[in-house]
Write a structure and sequence with these properties.
Length: 749
């Protein structure tokens, strides 16, 4: 751990909030905190650690037990819902639950019960005057689940709805009463109700001797920015039992307001807990400097939050590109080409991700990749095929094609099996269409339309393949648990939270998609901005933005968040200008550059507008202008080159270059040594601020500046379509020279 992480992990004061921006080692610090408590003699059963996913909990357990001889049986590291279940098993009878109550998680069954209640004569009258959208059982259930997270019972929710004059919510409250009664009668606890009931049980038990809330001495909370009212109340109850609170999170990544999370709980931390302190992790171990800068530019527009500036731990600058495509089909084709380029260059498939604000866009892109034989993460990404009916359609298609699936899914009904067998002689196209129609006609219930849409989307995916063998070979490679195939992640930004990749394609950057068109509330709009922030900060080295000029309904404009990331104060405005349209598709794929063919950049072709390229171009022009100004006695030249990337700066002025016609190794290394020792005079065009960045001769600052400049050039060359191996060898040799010869000359102290 670094110094900041250790200070957070070993904090001995009262409540502590650790602000952990993207890539700052949040999990490492949380594990470090748990280990520190164990080292101080705290028992595992005295530490409560709450997470928001089972995956996060499992990772914490694994890392702690790998580094400590901890008693995993005595640990409680789990989700808020798993904690709630444990509480209800212990205290549930005190609030009227039977010992053998059942947890009810089946959404379709819950929807069916809601529909049945809405159809009752005494309830139906409340829905008669509502719109079709407001009358859907899914809308009713969503409301019930949301008010439970606010710890509101049906009566309180009804009073609030009456005061606000909201007719749909008044109707939902009538269903809420009946639905709660149904759960009581059936001894059921549905998933959203678990935390609500657990809070009730804790409150009732709080005053008892040996109360449950006094079991733990320390409460650790992961992703604190995502807690809702019920979860916050649960945490506060344990704190009231004299447990010390240690929480970690990032308000900049609060993107779950739509499901009840409230970032205010994090922002008000110091006011909520007496003697509370706040500690920030500032070193980012993930992204290149340019990516972090773009994210910071965007964060400067947040309405509120803990202002933070992350420092990259690596000398890698990172690269950002933008492209505006004609339409979604053009976008999918372009991403296919770009991803294939990266795969050909040796970038592993599991180091590439395609992300979007909604599900719709990624589905089309995933289908395009699958069609062309590129494995896609179907487990965690957008094409999860996780619904019952989707799996049935795929199984039916396999039966109709005589293909055996190695992975196990639920059996299909006899009638569907028989119908599938009768299609064995049909074409792939005919099989898929017939099966989709057959399954759609068999549907019944309130969610019929939703299922039909899913089946139609899946049909489109299946038909994008030439035949059954093409589809199922890819499916086997992606879903077979024994397959070691690396896969491209394709999913929503929400599904990518907490993950990272070498290369990230952030699609759908249009106004109306990100931010969504219906967003008018400033707080909701700000959450859309945070969603863009989360998406951008998933990238390590390469970040690609795409938008389209036209969708199936209308013309589109680029997202305003692009301008916020690359505003005039940071990056030239033309960074996000629309690329010139070319009729020759091949010509559009050829880099527009003065460099030779073997130096053309692989991932920054003409249609991809690199903001570093734009910055460099502007810098050159400004430098030329500044040279004229200097001659006229008007002032210093601007030198963005030397502050942001390798290029025609101090080193080049000193005669250093790795071009074919440049000096040999002895001359290059002599120049590096002279620059390092201060035997080369700083050029006149360098501004005072840039001169300061080079540091004093023989200093650590100057050594790192020279080394960093060479590293940037090396990294850029390696990313080119046809990299110059000679240039790479020269840079690598010069880095070895610096480390072996110059480093020892650094002035001590």
């Amino acid at each position: 751990m670094n110094v900041e992480q250790k200070l957070a992990a070993k904090y001995e004061g009262g409540p502590l909030l650790v602000i952990a921006g993207p890539g700052t080692g949040k999990t490492t610090t949380l594990v470090g905190r748990y280990q520190y408590l164990l080292s101080k003699g705290v028992k595992e059963n005295q530490i409560l650690c709450c997470t928001f996913s089972r995956k996060a909990a499992d990772e914490l357990k694994s890392r702690i037990t790998a580094q400590n001889q901890a008693d995993e049986k005595g640990m409680f590291i789990g989700t808020f819902h798993s904690l709630a279940l444990r509480i209800l098993k212990s205290l549930g009878t005190n609030i009227g639950l039977k010992k053998d109550f059942s947890i009810w998680t089946n959404y379709r069954e819950r929807i069916a019960v809601i529909q049945e209640i809405q159809d009752r004569e005494n309830i139906k009258i409340y829905f008669d005057k509502l719109s079709l959208e407001d009358s859907k059982p899914a809308a009713t259930l969503a409301y019930i689940d949301s008010v439970r997270e606010e710890l509101l019972d049906a009566e309180d929710a009804s009073i609030r709805a009456s005061e606000m004059g909201k007719k749909p919510e008044l109707a939902y409250c009538e269903v809420y009463r009946e639905y709660e009664q149904y759960l009581i009668e059936k001894d059921l606890v549905d998933f959203p109700r678990m935390v609500q009931l657990a809070v009730k049980a804790l409150e009732q038990n709080a005053s008892n001797n040996g109360s449950y809330i006094k079991k733990f001495k320390h409460v650790l909370v992961d992703e604190f920015q995502d807690i809702n009212a019920a979860q916050k109340r649960m945490v506060d109850l344990f704190v009231s039992g004299n447990a010390n609170l240690w929480a970690v999170g990032d308000d900049y990544q609060a993107i779950y307001g739509w499901r009840g999370s409230d970032v205010r709980y994090m922002l008000d931390f110091k006011n909520s807990y007496e003697g509370a302190s706040i500690h920030a992790l500032k070193v980012n171990y993930r992204s290149g400097r340019h990516i972090l800068q773009a994210a910071e530019n965007l964060s400067n527009h947040f309405l509120e939050g803990f202002r933070k500036k992350l420092t990259p731990s690596t000398e890698d600058t990172g690269a950002i590109f933008y492209d505006e495509l004609e339409n979604e089909a053009d976008e999918a084709q372009t991403l296919l080409e770009e991803i294939q380029l990266r795969l050909d260059a040796g970038i592993p498939a599991d180091e590439i991700a395609v992300l979007s604000r909604t599900n719709k866009r990624p589905i089309k892109i995933a289908s395009k990749l699958l069609q062309n034989g590129i494995p896609v993460d179907l487990k965690d990404g957008v094409l999860a095929f996780d619904s019952f009916h989707e799996k049935q359609l795929i199984q039916a298609a396999s039966v109709a094609s005589g293909i055996f699936l190695s992975f196990k899914w639920p059996r299909i009904p006899k009638d569907l099996y028989g119908f599938s067998k009768r299609l064995e002689t049909e074409t792939w196209d005919r099989k898929v269409k017939s099966l989709t129609t057959y399954m759609s006609k068999r549907l019944s219930g309130s969610d019929t339309e939703v299922i039909k849409i899913k089946l139609e989307n899946l049909k489109s995916t299946l038909l994008s393949f030439a035949d059954a063998s093409a589809f199922f070979s890819v499916l086997e490679a992606t879903l077979n648990p024994n397959s070691d195939a690396k896969k491209v992640f394709v999913g929503t930004i929400h599904s990518a939270k907490g993950l990272e990749w070498d290369s990230v394609f952030l699609t759908g950057m249009e106004d109306g998609n990100l931010p969504q068109r219906q967003t008018t509330d400033p707080k909701v709009y700000d959450e859309e901005r945070r969603i863009a922030y989360v998406g951008a900060t998933r990238a390590k080295r390469f970040l690609f933005f795409t938008s389209i000029a036209e969708n199936e309904h209308d013309k589109c404009e680029p997202s305003p968040f692009l301008s916020e990331m690359f505003g005039p104060q940071q990056v030239p405005e033309q960074t996000i200008s629309k690329p010139e349209k070319q009729t020759d598709k091949h010509q559009a794929n050829v880099a527009k550059t003065s460099l030779s063919d073997d130096e053309q950049e692989k991932f920054a072709r003409d249609k991809w507008k690199s903001y570093q390229e734009r910055l460099i171009e502007k810098s050159i022009e400004e430098r030329k202008q500044a040279s004229t100004n200097v001659a006229d006695g008007e002032g210093d030249a601007l030198t963005s080159w030397d502050t942001d990337s390798a290029g025609p700066g101090f080193l080049q002025d000193a005669g250093y270059t790795t071009r074919k016609d440049g000096p040999g190794s002895s001359v290059r290394q002599r120049i590096l040594k002279e620059v390092f020792l201060g035997q080369q005079q700083m050029p006149d065009w360098l501004s005072d601020s840039v001169t300061l960045q080079w540091g004093a001769p023989k200093s650590v600052e100057r050594f790192n500046k020279i080394r960093g400049t060479i590293n940037v050039g090396l990294g850029t060359q390696k990313g080119k379509q046809n990299p110059s191996l000679q240039a790479i060898k020269k840079w690598e040799d010069d880095l070895i020279f610096m480390d072996s010869e110059l480093h020892a000359l650094i002035t001590e102290g």
